[in-house]
Specification:
Strand content: 5-15%
Oligomer: single chain
Structural class: alpha/beta
Number of strands: 11
Shape: globular
Order of helices and strands: HEHEHEHHHEHHHHHHEHHEEHEHEEHE
Distance between the termini: 38 Å
Length: 445
């Protein structure tokens, strides 16, 4: 994808900073978020982004918004950019249905897929503890849920299917074991070996997972057990089908594997909304690159789509609120390459001319922007401006070459929260302090 980080030469930065000063809301405390809740109104889908997967404030501000949406506006569940099996275990815990795991810390510490810190962190423990307490007094069908949208969990999903069928359907278990045996030789390297092998045998295990999904769907109505567990085993079977396609596409690189992943997340969101009923309301947590409408970035020119765009198209813009997050400087948890040890890395001052730079220059403070206040400005709608995006793999010294997404911000989001200075989140999987609770836990929220 093409990337730049400066404002176009025909944009007057001073005028743009003045516009931000005129329309942005100061965020001196979380109480100042009320204009956002007014903007959300009766919308049924609220997507909360993040500019990185390793920033403390993104998690705590999203948690605050999430709690208020659940308490005050009747939102029923959270769906995140995470693996279904791990998130489903957390879902069962917060609903009081997990007899094995007795603490949110223990459940989240079991999130062991790299990048582990993304969900195995103290910020998430605080939210999970709150959800557990919130659900205690609620009937089962009114308890808030937590689910994963992602496609990566091929082997974990297969193992979950096998455990379920061992107890409920020995006949279908044979089909599941056949599919698992087909994938088993490629389990060690997170799908890369399967992707390479599929170059020579393009439909390596495709038939096996398709047959498994068909059999589970045909028989699921006969499974006389917890309806949510039945839904979960069907979802794991869908993941097996879609992950097989994703890993085959991965070897080619480019846009198709990205689009397969975001379509899977969108389809999973659709399934969750249907399962929870026609008036269901969901809060989504994912990276800005997934929730900010791709049509307002250079992703569209490259043929890429994303979750926020698909939700707006399917459910209608009045029913979907996309909230982006960003920061000017600080620290962040990331790895220098895929699978590398996590580090607290410096997040340098945002590049001159970027959205983060302009927001910082508008007052050196936290800000809330409601995009309806900026939508009538032709200059902003005609000129993409760089907007920082930090992944789980991050090298600060190379930031200017690939971490700024040209964006028409008033079209990409419905609202944007700028947190001027941020710091790294608090992972659970650290050698020296795995059981040491941060001094500020639960972070004053």
């Amino acid at each position: 994808m093409r990337r730049h980080h400066t404002t176009p030469p025909d944009i007057n930065e001073t005028e743009l900073i003045s516009l931000i000063k005129q329309w942005a809301y100061s965020l001196n405390s979380k109480a100042d978020l009320q204009p956002l809740f007014d903007r959300i109104g009766d919308s049924r889908i609220v997507m909360l982004g993040e500019a990185s997967h390793g920033t403390h404030e993104f998690y705590t501000w999203r948690a605050h918004i999430t709690r208020r949406l659940i308490q005050e506006k009747g939102f029923q569940f959270i769906a995140v950019e995470g693996d279904w099996p791990d998130c489903y275990r957390l879902n069962r815990f917060i609903k009081g249905l997990d007899e094995k795991d007795k603490s949110a810390f223990k459940v989240l510490q079991a999130f062991n897929r790299w990048p582990t810190w993304m969900w195995a962190n103290w910020e998430m423990v605080a939210l999970a503890d709150w959800l557990f307490e919130f659900n205690k007094s609620k009937p089962l069908n009114k308890r808030a849920g937590f689910y994963g949208l992602d496609v990566y969990s091929l082997w974990e999903s297969m193992e979950s299917i096998i455990r379920y069928l061992e107890k409920t359907d020995p006949g279908a278990l044979t089909t599941a074991l056949e599919a698992f045996r087909c994938f088993e030789p490629y389990q060690k390297d997170e799908g890369r070996g399967y992707a390479r092998a599929s170059q020579f045998v393009p439909e390596l295990c495709q038939q096996e997972v398709v047959e498994l999904l068909k059999e589970i769907q045909a028989k699921s109505i006969l499974y006389n057990s917890d309806p949510e567990n039945v839904f979960s085993v069907e979802q794991n079977a869908r993941i097996a089908v879609n992950a097989e396609q994703y890993y085959r596409a991965m070897i080619k690189g480019g846009l198709h594997s990205w689009n397969l992943r975001d379509r899977h997340m969108a389809d999973t969101l659709d399934d969750l909304l249907e399962y929870h009923g026609k008036d269901a309301k969901v809060i989504v947590w994912a990276h800005n690159t997934h929730i900010g409408d791709a049509r307002a970035t250079d992703m569209a020119a490259d043929g890429m789509l994303n979750l926020g765009e698909l939700a707006r198209i399917k459910y209608g813009e009045p029913h979907v609120v996309l909230v982006g997050f960003g920061s000017y400087k600080g620290t962040v948890i990331a790895g220098k390459n895929w699978g590398a040890p996590m580090q607290a890395l410096n997040l340098p001052d945002a590049a001159r001319g970027s959205w983060e730079y302009l927001l910082h220059k508008s007052g050196n403070q936290n800000l809330l922007l409601l995009m309806e206040d900026f939508i009538s400005n032709d200059t902003l709608l005609e000129h993409p401006i760089g907007h920082r995006a930090v992944g789980v793999v991050y090298n600060p010294q190379y930031e200017a070459y690939g971490n700024y997404v040209p964006s028409i911000l008033p079209l990409r989001y419905d609202a944007f929260i700028h947190l001027d200075q941020t710091r790294a989140l608090h992972p659970l999987h650290v050698d020296t302090a795995v059981a040491q609770m941060p001094e500020t836990y639960p972070f004053g929220v």
